[in-house]
């Protein structure tokens, strides 16, 4: 345990930030799982709606430096690539 008052305060701040970041990362995972579930059921409309929500959550997390902006871009790219693949399979 920290001894100095500044170290005690820093520990409090770290715990608060960790909880906030963990919550945000959990929201990201949940949003991406919704997209994956919609894609597995081949429901394009639900997948698009879930993708829009996931993009919103990813962008907010990247803006707040919870995840790196390149990671957010990579996740979004993979989501939309998967949607396009399902659409192409349905067309022919």
UniProtKB/TrEMBL annotation:
UniProt keyword list: Ribonucleoprotein, Ribosomal protein, RNA-binding, rRNA-binding
Residue spans of biased composition, Basic residues class: 12-23
BP-aspect Gene Ontology terms: translation
Gene Ontology molecular functions: small ribosomal subunit rRNA binding; structural constituent of ribosome
GO cellular component: cytosol; small ribosomal subunit
Gene3D superfamilies: Ribosomal protein S20
Region span, Disordered: 1-28
Family that this chain belongs to: Belongs to the bacterial ribosomal protein bS20 family.
HAMAP family assigned: Ribosomal_bS20
PANTHER family: 30S RIBOSOMAL PROTEIN S20, SMALL RIBOSOMAL SUBUNIT PROTEIN BS20C
Name by which UniProt lists this protein: Small ribosomal subunit protein bS20
Organism (species): Candidatus Komeilibacteria bacterium RIFCSPLOWO2_02_FULL_48_11
Taxonomy of the source species: Bacteria, Candidatus Komeiliibacteriota
């Amino acid at each position: 345990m920290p001894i100095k008052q500044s170290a005690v305060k820093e520990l409090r701040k770290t715990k608060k930030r960790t909880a906030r970041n963990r919550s945000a990362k959990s929201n990201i995972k949940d949003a991406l799982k919704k997209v994956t579930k919609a894609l597995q059921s081949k429901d394009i409309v639900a997948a698009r709606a879930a993708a829009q929500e996931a993009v919103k959550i990813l962008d907010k997390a990247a803006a707040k430096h919870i995840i790196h902006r390149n990671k957010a871009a990579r996740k979004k790219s993979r989501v939309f690539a998967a949607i396009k693949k399902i659409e192409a399979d349905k067309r022919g």
